[in-house]
Write a structure and sequence with these properties.
Layout: E1 9-13, H1 16-34, E2 40-44, H2 47-54, H3 68-75, E3 82-85, H4 93-105, H5 120-130, H6 138-141, E4 144-150, H7 152-160, E5 175-177, E6 189-192, E7 199-207, E8 212-221, E9 226-232, H8 234-251, E10 254-257, H9 267-279, H10 281-294, H11 302-310, H12 315-328, E11 334-336, E12 341-342, H13 352-361, E13 365-367, E14 373-379, H14 386-399, E15 410-414, E16 429-431, E17 436-441, E18 447-453, E19 458-464, H15 466-483, E20 486-490, H16 496-512, E21 519-521, H17 523-535, E22 540-544, H18 546-561, E23 567-573, E24 578-581, H19 589-598, H20 606-622, H21 626-644, H22 658-675, H23 680-695, H24 697-705, H25 722-729, H26 733-739
Parallel strand pairs: 1-2, 1-3, 3-24, 5-14, 10-14, 15-22, 20-21, 20-22
Antiparallel strand pairs: 4-15, 4-23, 6-9, 7-8, 7-17, 9-19, 11-12, 13-14, 16-19, 17-18, 23-24
């Protein structure tokens, strides 16, 4: 059924915990799918893989890798595409540099990341690396809009086995602070391209003396595309941060900065750098010249600052001055109190869509440098979506913590097809070089956007195509019709971008005759209504743009389920085909740290199980393959078995971990196939496999748990050694031998 170049189902090779889990799970999947005539291919979209693919001219034939991401970008436009996509690193500069350093230590002749490129060669290298930073993968693969929801089995289990929730006090000092003017939201302008304006657009900077510099051109956009532009004032940002530091100190709370430098990889690192600089303002003022000479980059955080200072001749006195200053500042929200890693250490350590829900789940508490929980000032500079967290906190103060046993569920229909933006992508985000104006010029010469800006301001453009918007609205109509519950378009008519979308949404709902089934609300109001609805046990569908898709599919699942990693996430590709994501959630570096130190991987593959089941059922439907459908249904049964028998990984060494969970998934999957009566051939084949797994259960579990509690060596973090990784993640000879009856084990890696 598959071709040499196009396997039936593509499995992505990614990073960190999800990739380690794949080494254990993928061989199991291949054994089962082989019996349905389904081939599983692997495409490498890991950070290390993308770095290697970017510099073929510098590598040996053995080292070279194809550009799998580009290949997948074309594949997802195929009507029969079937891709299972795991969470991957959205690399910050420190992560990118760390990966480059590791690869070079392994013998890869890669160029260093040029912080300040001067030569043409350095500029070319920087351009290649910049294309790898941040959320570079998802926009390429997501050729459709998002349908995310909790699987029924997962929701039932969470209600019957509620996760821990912190206690909210009406007197909690935890709050959200955001800018009220001169931020991205307040300066936003938006236009829908006319036929004459469509075509090749350009971005230009006009200096005070009328010198025009083209910053970006040849941006081809079709008629009907919504094009936004906005900027944040650097002066206003600094003034806001100064104010928040003072107010946090007065309140006696933690200073807690929440950004998303991994996705908004140009703007948010700059915002982060401003926070670092303002927090240590006297230090930067005193040592500005020395820091510039030493190569200090505040955008990389305190961790990088400390490393650079160590090489300076007066490092001891500088560190002493920093420590003394920090004693006078409000205490920082901590990433790891035991190791002294603060909120301002690394821009990618605190990611708003994960950090804010975690704080809300914990009763508004964050960890301080003293190792104790404390209320926090949640500083979110841009006001575009700060309101959703502010309103969530207010609701919890008024009504107490969310009750997982009775709370309804929030589904999400997210606008993300064809690289739909509402935050600006990195090629269209700029730190303003000098006072003047920023402009967007249409194909016909029209000035679409014009902002008066000052040096250091952060300016960005975003675009969303009409076809993507229309597909999004249609998906929302279909989802609401299936569910019959409350459905809200989270759109603010007072925001320029949202108003342009409303102009498309409203007539489409009217034509479909279903306008009464939907509401259109600004994010704050939508948050309040959604919390009230789910608090009463009812369900809601949040229909949102790309940023809120990201934020809400962490916020509500973390409160409902305890995690966002167990979400069912389906991307219905616009040309047909399906992209099946393994739920929201990052790639869990802390999980890797625990594996390396204690040989315990607590990553939960439940979202992966859900994605696999949907992928197989979709394959069966499209290809008229009833065996695939049977396998998919059996995956659902196996997933239910994992939940019913409490075989998910635990957090602590000595409890079940990811590898144990995979064994039980294989056992329950085989049993479900053996017990079904739709396909006698499959039942006959899998019955002895199920028996072999069951009869050897004790031996397999003992082999899987051998060496738990001790450190392990993977031979690399971003680019691990295959043999070492297999030895760690597939340590049961008995299980491997059972699987080897059908497949060469190592070929699955």
């Amino acid at each position: 059924m598959a071709t040499e170049t196009a396997p039936d189902i593509i499995y992505t090779k990614v990073d960190e915990a999800p990739q380690l889990a794949s080494v254990s799970l993928l061989p199991i999947i291949r054994v089962f799918t082989e019996k349905a005539g389904i081939s599983i291919g692997v495409k490498d979209i890991s950070l290390a893989g993308r770095i290697i693919a970017a510099f073929p001219e510098r590598l040996t034939p053995v080292q070279k890798l194809p550009d799998d991401l580009a290949e997948l970008g074309e594949l997802v436009k195929n009507s029969r595409a079937n891709v299972i996509k795991l969470p991957n690193i959205s690399a910050s500069v420190p992560q990118l540099v760390a990966a480059i350093t590791e690869l070079k230590s392994q013998g890869f002749d890669l160029p260093d990341y040029p912080e300040e490129p001067v030569s043409d060669t350095e500029k070319s290298v920087r351009s290649k690396y910049d294309a790898i930073k941040g959320s570079a993968v998802n926009p390429v693969l997501r050729e459709g809009n998002s349908d995310r929801r909790a699987a029924v089995a997962v929701k039932k289990f969470a209600a019957a086995n509620p996760h821990s929730m912190g206690v909210w006090s009406k007197d909690s000092k935890t709050r959200v602070s955001t800018m009220t003017s001169d931020d991205f939201r307040s300066n936003e302008t938006s236009v829908t391209l006319s036929g004459s304006q469509a075509g090749f657009l350009r971005i230009e900077h006009v200096s005070i003396d009328e010198q025009v510099t083209v910053l970006k051109d040849s941006m081809e956009l079709p008629t009907g595309t919504v094009v936004d532009a906005t900027f944040m004032s650097a002066k206003a940002l600094d003034a806001f941060l100064v104010q928040q530091i003072e107010e946090t100190k007065a309140d006696g709370t933690l200073f807690s900065l929440h950004l998303k430098a991994t996705m908004m990889k140009i703007s948010d690192p700059i915002l982060f750098g401003h926070a670092v600089t303002v927090y240590l303002k006297p230090i930067f003022e005193k040592y500005m010249s020395a820091f510039d000479k030493a190569g200090v980059d505040p955008n990389s955080g305190l961790g990088s600052l400390y490393s650079v200072i160590e090489a300076m001749p007066n490092s001891g006195s500088i560190r002493a001055e920093i420590d003394a200053l920090m004693e006078t500042r409000p205490p920082l929200y901590m990433v790891n109190s035991d190791k002294g890693i603060t909120n301002l250490h690394v821009p990618s350590d605190v990611i708003i869509d994960a950090s804010m829900p975690a704080l809300i789940r914990a009763g508004g508490k964050g960890w301080g440098p003293d190792g104790r929980e404390s209320d926090a000032n949640c500083v979110i500079p841009d006001s575009s979506y700060a309101a959703i967290y502010d309103e969530a906190i207010k609701f919890c103060k008024e009504n107490g913590a969310v009750n997982p046993t009775s709370v309804g569920t929030v589904q999400n229909v997210g606008l993300m097809a064809q690289k739909a933006e509402e935050y600006g992508s990195h090629p269209t985000t700029f730190e303003v070089p000098s006072n003047g104006k920023m402009r967007v010029i249409g194909a016909n010469g029209d000035i679409l956007h014009e902002h008066s800006v000052e040096s250091g301001d952060i300016w960005r453009m975003a675009s969303t195509r009409k076809a993507a918007i229309e597909n999004w609205v249609q998906l929302a109509i279909e989802r609401q019709d299936l569910e019959g519950c409350e459905a809200i378009f989270w759109l603010d008519e007072c925001r320029a971008h949202d108003l342009e979308l409303i102009k498309v949404v409203t007539p489409m709902l009217d034509v479909a005759g279903c306008a009464d089934n939907f509401s259109i609300m600004a994010p704050r109001e939508a948050t309040r209504v959604t919390f009230e609805t789910t608090h009463s046990g009812h369900n809601s569908i949040a229909i949102t743009g790309n940023v809120l898709r990201d934020y809400l599919t962490d916020l509500f699942p973390i409160l409902e389920l305890g995690t966002s990693a167990k979400m069912l996430s389906i991307v219905k590709l616009m040309n047909g085909g399906g992209l099946f994501e393994t739920g929201a959630g990052g790639s869990a570096p802390k999980h890797v740290e625990q594996l390396l130190e204690k040989n315990h991987l607590r990553w939960d593959s439940l979202g992966e199980f859900c994605a696999l089941g949907e992928s197989l059922k979709y394959f069966g439907l499209v290809n008229n393959n009833p065996k695939a459908t049977t396998l998919g249904a059996a995956v659902d049964a196996a997933t239910q078995g994992i939940l019913d028998h409490n075989k998910s990984p635990g957090r602590k060494v000595g409890q079940l971990d990811n590898r144990d969970s995979h064994f039980f998934f294989a056992l329950y999957w085989a049993q479900a196939i053996a017990e079904q009566n739709r396909d006698f051939e499959l039942a006959t084949y899998f019955a002895p496999l199920a028996e072999a797994l069951l009869s050897n259960q004790d031996t397999i579990i003992d082999e899987l748990r051998a060496g738990r509690g001790t450190a392990v060596d993977l031979g690399g973090y971003y680019h691990s050694d295959v043999s070492k990784t297999v030895a760690v993640m597939a340590p049961s000879a008995t299980l491997n031998n059972i699987l080897l009856k059908s497949l060469e084990f190592k070929s699955s890696i």
